[in-house]
Structure formats: C-alpha cells, structure tokens
Amino acid sequence: MTVVIFYIFAAVLLAAAFGVIASKNPVHAALYLVLSFFTGAVLWMLIKAEFLAVSLIVIYVGAVMVLFLFVVMMLDVNFEELRKGFWRYVPVAGTVAVIMAVEMVLVLTHQAAQIEGAVLVEPAPGYNNAKALGQLIYTHYFLPFQLAAALLLVGMIAAIALTLRKRKNTKYINPADQIKVKRNDRLKIVSVPTEARATIEPPKAADGEQQA
C-alpha cells in the first residue's frame, strides 16, 4: 500500500510541476506550486521525515507562497511583456533538463542503489527525527550551517540596501527621538470656555393678528 501511495502522489507531483511551468496565469502557476509542495510533504511523510514535511508546508506554503500571491495579485505586472523572448531560451532549458534526467537515471541505476530488499528501517519507540536532525546540524554539519546562515544574512542585507531609496517628500522617523518623547510632549490639555446656549424666541404676531 505504501508503494501505491508513493506512485500516486509522485504522479500528482509531476503533473503539478508541469502545471507550474505551463500555466500562463501566474496565480494558477502559484496554486500548482502549492499542490506540488503538499504532495512533496506527503512523500516526506512516507519516509518518516515528519519534521521536514511540516516545515515544507509551514514555511513554503504558509509564508513564501502567500507572499508571492500577494505580490502577484497586488502589483499590476505585465506578464505578456515578460514572456517575450521565451522561446529563445528553450534550447538551453531543454539541454539542462536532459542533463538532469541523465544524472537522475545514472543515480538510480547505480550499483549502490540496486540493493534487493532495501526497506525503510522502522524507528525505535520514542524516536524524534527533529531531535536527531538538530543534533546533526549543530555537531557534524555545524560549519556548513553557519556558512548558510551568513550567506542568507548577506543576501538579506544586500536586498535591503539595493531597494532602499531616499525621497525628498518622505517623512523619516528617528527611533531615538521616539523613545525620548514624554507625555507632555504629545498630550496638551486645553481649557475651552463653555458657551451659553442660544435661546429661540417665539415669533411676534403681526399687527392685524393682534387687533383680531
């Protein structure tokens, strides 16, 4: 039954991945990508990697794709203009795809992958893959983990520096001045004298009406 579930979700994953690159509407492409993330998470669950599966859904589906959809739907991007010259890159993309397919076939047909009766080892009772992953990251792979964190930090700082623009009409706020503000600097009590309420006098009758 596990093999059947694997092939079903693997087929759905391939169809969703093809829909990402074949959809003309960027919103539809993003939804196909969300579907591919969910099916990929199911495949992670099948190999007992629950932490990676949950991380894939929470981080990519819950954060990255929501941000992507927000940007696509809020900004008026002319995608027809961006698609111009698409077919010029098809030969390069096809070459890269063929190379990747050949590499995957070589990996799958390698002698190390042809182990008869290879099955997933059932974890021991009380086994926590998140704990095991954390122990590997902070012991054996500590240096690559720190290098990846530094690389992401540099990329974040570079993105902020490249998009930071100072405009003359923009009002900038100094956080130090905000911290120094006291109550009397922001709140001013003004005593306003009360005004007498205007009275409405009844209309005076005309002379003919008084004589009558």
Would you mind describing this structure in some detail?
The chain has 212 residues and is mostly helical. Among the domains are: 1-77, NADH-ubiquinone/plastoquinone oxidoreductase chain 6, subunit NuoJ (Four Helix Bundle (Hemerythrin (Met), subunit A)), CATH 1.20.120.1200; 127-164. The protein has helices at residues 2-22, 26-46, 50-74, 79-82, 90-108, 129-137, 142-163, 175-180, 183-186, 207-211. Helix 1 runs antiparallel to helix 2 (26-46). The longest helix is centred in the first third of the chain and has 25 residues, at 50-74. The termini are far apart.
Question: Helices, strands, pairings?
Answer:
Layout: H1 2-22, H2 26-46, H3 50-74, H4 79-82, H5 90-108, H6 129-137, H7 142-163, H8 175-180, H9 183-186, H10 207-211
Helix pairs in contact: 1-2, 2-3
Q: Got a strand count?
A: 0
CATH architecture of the domain at 1-77: Up-down Bundle
> How confident overall, as mean pLDDT?
80
Q: Give the helix/strand class.
A: mainly alpha
- The run of helices and strands is HHHHHHHHHH
Q: What is the count of DSSP helices, taking H or I runs of 4+ residues? A: 10
Shape: elongated
Question: Beta fraction of the residues?
Answer: under 5%
Q: If you consult CATH, what is the topology of the domain at 1-77?
A: Four Helix Bundle (Hemerythrin (Met), subunit A)
**Overall radius of gyration:** 34 Å
- Tell me the name of the CATH homologous superfamily of the domain at 1-77: NADH-ubiquinone/plastoquinone oxidoreductase chain 6, subunit NuoJ
